[in-house]
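Exercise 7 asks you to align residues with tokens for two separate proteins.
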Amino acid sequence: MHESIIYLENISLVDFLGANNVNFDEIVSAFPDSKIISRGNEIRIKGKVSEIGKISDVISSMIAHFNKYGYLKPEQVHDYLNGQLAEMEPKAPNEVILH
């Protein structure tokens, strides 16, 4: 069994993990074969290397989303777990308007 640690730096844990850890619990339930623990500002992942990679990718995407938009809803966590959110994010306009 391998282990990986993800540090949550400069992130509001309540906003990121969700009220009553609802966002975190969504991740844990999506990967029942791995052990995922949140303590303080770190998330420890124990399991197979391939699954640790998937979990790390999902959490990294969630961190990027949180840093960009300042929030993370349970529905968005679910979409990240299903690989759907990248298509749903609003795209920045290509136009630049100067006054």
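Second protein for Exercise 7:
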Amino acid sequence: MIEILDWIGRFTTVLLLIAIVAGVYTWAKGILPAMLRLGKGLAKRKIGIFAKGDNFNSLKDLLLDSKLFNSKNITHISSKSDFGKAEDQTLFLVFWPDFEDSLDEIMKLKKDGTALVVYAPQESGVIPRDKINILNAKRNVILTNFRGRLLNDIVVSLITTSYEG
């Protein structure tokens, strides 16, 4: 009887070791790369906020209050004359009511690997269908209407877009 229990113990130990190795392997292949990308994104990615006045302050406070972003990585783009500051930004956050007339210029600035998050609160009106089609034609573009969803969309954009640097 002791011999049978000894073999069962050895067999279950081998199964446990295989499960541990498989678990570490799948974690390293699945979760670790996403965590590394998120860490790089939060530490190094530059966020250009296209907003004016209090809207900029509100969006910047939303990012900083989360304790995920560093204020030195946030750039204020308040007018078309500031668009040159957006060239090295890796994520554009656009407050739609302030820059709805500048969509074409913003889309020209946006590189393929740059994420674009457009925040269009419902109380500011509906985005016209032709503008939505322009946004939909590019990769890595997110349109959101809710503040609560905005932070999530920014974090997901940082994970899913590439970062060179």
